[in-house]
Amino acid sequence: MRYISTRGEAPSLDFSEALLAGLARDGGLYLPETWPRVSPAEIAAYAGRPFHAVAFDIIRRFTGGTIPDPVLAAATEAAYAGFGHQAVTPLQQIGPNRFVLELFHGPTLAFKDVAMQLLARLMDHALGVRGGRATIVGATSGDTGGAAIEAFRASTRTDVFILFPDGRVSDVQRRMMTTPGEAHIHALAIPGTFDDCQNLVKALFNAHDFRDSIRLSGVNSINWARIVAQVSYYFVAAVALGAPHRKVAFAVPTGNFGDIFAGHVARRMGLPVETLVIATNSNDILARTLATGRYEMAAVEATSSPSMDIQISSNFERLLFEATERDAGAVRRMMAGLRQSGAFTVPEPALAAIRAGFQAFRAGEEAVAAAIRETRDRAAYLTDPHTATGIVAADRAAIDPAVPIVVLATAAPAKFPEEMRALAGAEAPLPARLAHLMSAPERIARVANDAAALMDFIRRNARAAEEAAP
Length: 470
Ligand SMILES: *Cc1c(COP(=O)(O)O)cnc(C)c1O
What we know:
Blueprint: E1 3-5, H1 15-21, E2 30-32, H2 40-44, H3 51-63, H4 69-81, E3 91-95, E4 98-102, H5 112-130, E5 134-139, H6 143-152, E6 158-165, H7 171-178, E7 185-190, H8 194-206, H9 208-213, E8 216-217, H10 224-240, E9 248-253, H11 258-268, E10 273-280, H12 285-292, E11 294-296, H13 316-323, H14 328-341, E12 343-345, H15 348-357, E13 358-362, H16 365-379, H17 385-396, E14 405-409, H18 417-424, E15 445-446, H19 451-461, H20 463-468
Parallel strand pairs: 4-14, 5-6, 5-8, 6-7, 7-15, 9-10, 9-14, 10-13
Antiparallel strand pairs: 1-2, 3-4, 11-12
The protein binds pyridoxal-5'-phosphate.
């Protein structure tokens, strides 16, 4: 199986190459050339299987043999062994035909662990085959960084640099990044927003000489392997609710569009998905795009769901590629518009295709607070502010009442204790296994919002730079 760029001007790669490359050299994102299918009988056979076994069966359809099956089986088993719930991603019922899929039982209490725990293992394997080290650089709005650092702590073949927007992540999120003491882990505070951090990372990937000199790899959700690792839980949840015999809808708290794009992939593979509901917070670029056809950046607003405080939703490019029937030229024109004027118009047939498969709703801060209180009072269930945007969107979505709707719970309330107190007067204590976090010493590097300064810092601290030097 080959992977092609959404911008059509980068060489196609195999799975391991796409895993190590992250962003394509033409600035695009990799997608498989064709979608593997899972038959209804195969979907039915997932019932009752352990999570890691379903993950293995889904992901092996994408690897094209570049990760041997026994290696992949061992990696999926190890990745989920440390989760704090036996079901890995349990479903909870919060109302008639209304469910919450808890994706936050990993080490950093957010759904990003599901993909990152596997990604780190697959990367170390791929680097072992290729030889040498890699330098991993990623931007985080809060949760990716902690998940990446936690997953790569044991890695022997990487140096990891995580950029986070200074002062715009929660204390728990920051401490998950700054308290690990391993010398190959670097948490970098950048004065700016998540979009600034993400733009710096993109600049590094587009500086080809620098990129090669440090053997740059990415772990943001632009990395195809992360998306693939998130497809599993759509299947697991849908099968628990009656798929393939019954359709299921999903509501997904959305920022960079990685998580919900995994739902699109599940649907393309044959999972009967009724609709995918995009939930945004006040940073509602995607809700506006679906309503008006115009993708138009606005200023980033700080909200109680900081991991969704985003105006450039990178993985939306993958959906645009799909919705234009894989017209790389059309994608290049839209992305050029975004670069030049901060906006583009989605052509009419593509917009209709997107609306046929997705709905989108904005949840402002008051709606989020009301959803947290209402769910607690009615269902005795506490959700974090990100998940609450999904509940708001599920309430507003137009869905046949006979179809079950699953809200993806992307973080545990304990990760956002100040927000929980302020929004709902609710206490959400950290699990005992994370009690050390609030007292451990922190290690933070401060780097200017400037690509040259960042390159200099990385060059001085990345061991792959020495290996690549003549
Ligand atoms: C990253 C994140 C999101 C957004 O996910 P995307 O894949 O970027 O759309 C939502 N909620 C939480 C808690 C997150 O960490």
